[in-house]
Design brief:
Length: about 525
């Protein structure tokens, strides 16, 4: 943005303040990924949209109708004349002219808000709901996608779908307040099919039918999100992180609604962050025994990307998003230890381009997720060789370890440049050196001594191992800690692994009989941490 007049600068600042005040959650993270030169124009588009939304929502109904009609008329006149005297609209008009924003898109956005203001929309069918979603946040996304160097017309469609998903997030966040005010933004045909009235949604009964109602919405939400995913590959270099952050936010909200089901009608969904800080939500463990330590072999990134016509690098970026999503799911389900197989010693055999893409994606994930992990109370440990990773990435990992070292909600162990056989050899050499130095007698070496010489001393035994993408092998992963682990092989490709899949694996674990080498079966129980020497 050029300096321009002081009034124009003040207008952009007002748009930024409007955006940050009324858009919480992942938006704070997403906007931080944008280049500084783009950010003011994103604020102008988003500030204009939220201001318009507030005009349509606030005040007496008759006043709202008059104000939104005047706002629409003045906005269109400003766009025709190429200038505005309104303190907020000035920046929006400037951005619309600089980026040649589609006037038809702006007009549809305004028309949708005006119609919503005249009378709260009632959606008979899902298609009616989609029409509203497209008209509001779909058009909002179509306004900002030109800022991200879009690659072809499909980028506009995918961005619009991502905008629709964002509006679904908003609908679920506001459900309790809307129902209390007599508004229901869910399709009426869904209610009729299940024999439900809006009063039932407010009462929270009958629970089974309400759970099914929410499940129907989740299915549609998942389908829209699936169609929106390619947008990360349809923007220019340097811009991918913005839609990726919005996708991660939508996925995390999706998982939250999956966890709550019909309880969302009374509780809604809290924004992911308030005033820029992550909000810790209380755990809601699955019924039955809970594994203390869950380890995951994350497989399927490349196949996931190939099925969507995306690059391998895009598949790995989606895999890192899935890892962040899993951390949130583990916290919500009450898991205390989570270990992820992120890069094995054998992965160096892949092409140098793919290895670099993997590490680039990991560096981006750390940069974008470090504060959130810390605020959520996650302690991060690095398990693996530390002598071969690029120094810049190694420094990031060391900083992440140090920053989160006193956290206690969840211990997240990142297995990077890790190989189980290498680890055992390293531990054996360490014990041999101690024996040669006379600090330990060979005959006194016990399991606790070996455990204390591993890459991550004190790492508890794994209770549940999950491997995705239908592969059924251990791939040199945590051989010491996996001695008595229960194994679950899930067909889901890793980037699609969500809270529902984790919860199902935990339920499978709870149904196993764990003997630990004994003769009598017993209920699943968390493993005890290895003693350190």
């Amino acid at each position: 943005m050029s300096s321009g007049s002081s009034e124009l600068r003040e207008s952009y600042e007002l748009c930024a303040a409007e955006t940050r005040q009324f858009l919480a959650g992942m938006w704070t993270v997403a906007e931080g990924t944008l280049p500084a030169a783009i950010r003011p124009h994103m604020h102008a588009i988003t500030g204009f949209t939220t201001w318009t939304d507030r005009i349509a929502d606030e005040g007496a109904p008759a006043d709202r109708v008059r104000r939104i009609a005047r706002w629409r008329s003045e906005t269109l006149e400003d766009l025709r004349s190429g200038r505005s005297t309104h303190p907020l609209r000035r920046a929006f008009v400037d951005t619309a002219l600089r980026w040649d924003l589609d006037r038809a898109v702006i007009e549809e956005l305004l028309a949708t808000f005006e119609a919503d203001c005249a009378s709260p929309p009632v959606f008979e069918t899902f298609e009616d709901q989609r029409h509203y979603l497209r008209g509001v946040t779909g058009m909002w996304a179509r306004m900002w996608i030109p800022l991200l160097d879009p690659r072809g017309p499909e980028a506009f469609r995918s961005a619009s779908l991502l905008g629709e998903v964002g509006q679904l997030v908003d609908i679920f966040e506001d459900l309790p307040r809307d129902l209390a005010a007599g508004r229901c933004y869910l399709p009426r045909e869904d209610l009729r099919r299940l024999g439900l009235e809006i009063a039932d949604l407010r009462r929270g009964e009958p629970r089974e039918a309400l759970d099914e109602l929410v499940d129907i919405q989740l299915t549609r939400w998942r389908d829209l999100l699936e169609q929106a995913l390619p947008v990360t590959a349809m923007v220019g270099p340097g811009y991918e992180a913005f839609p990726a952050a919005l996708i991660l936010g939508a996925q995390t909200h999706f998982d939250e609604v999956t966890l709550l089901r019909s309880r969302v009608l009374a509780e809604g969904v809290e924004p992911l962050s308030l005033t820029g800080r992550a909000r810790r939500r209380p755990a809601r463990p699955a019924a039955g025994p809970l594994p203390g330590h869950v380890a995951v072999i994350m497989d399927g990134n490349r196949r996931w990307a190939a099925r969507r016509g995306m690059s391998v690098a895009q598949g790995h970026r989606a895999g890192w998003r899935a890892a962040m999503r899993l951390v949130n799911s583990a916290l919500r389900l009450g898991i205390r230890h989570l270990s992820l197989y992120m890069f094995s010693t054998e992965n160096w055999d892949r092409s140098s381009r793919e290895v670099q893409d993997l590490f680039d994606a990991l560096a981006e994930a750390i940069d974008q997720g470090v504060e959130r992990l810390h605020e959520l109370g996650v302690r991060v440990r690095w398990c693996g060789r530390r002598d071969r990773i690029d120094p810049s990435l190694a420094s990031r990992l060391a900083l992440l370890e140090n920053m989160t070292s006193n956290n206690a909600e969840l211990t997240l162990t990142l297995c990077i440049d890790y190989g189980g056989r290498d680890e055992m050899v390293t531990a054996a050499r360490s014990l041999a050196a101690r024996a040669a130095a006379g600090t330990i007698r060979p005959g006194d070496i016990g399991p606790e001594d070996l455990a204390g010489s591993l890459y991550a001393p004190g790492l508890p035994d794994v209770d549940l191992l999950i491997r995705t993408a239908a592969e059924q092998r251990l791939s040199n992963f945590l051989p010491w800690q996996l001695a008595y682990a229960e194994l679950v092989f899930d067909p889901t490709l890793w980037p699609d692994f969500d809270l529902a899949r984790l919860r199902q694996a935990i339920l499978d674990y709870g149904g196993r009989e764990r003997r630990f080498g004994g003769g009598l079966p017993g209920p699943a129980r968390p493993g005890e941490p290895a003693r350190t020497g």
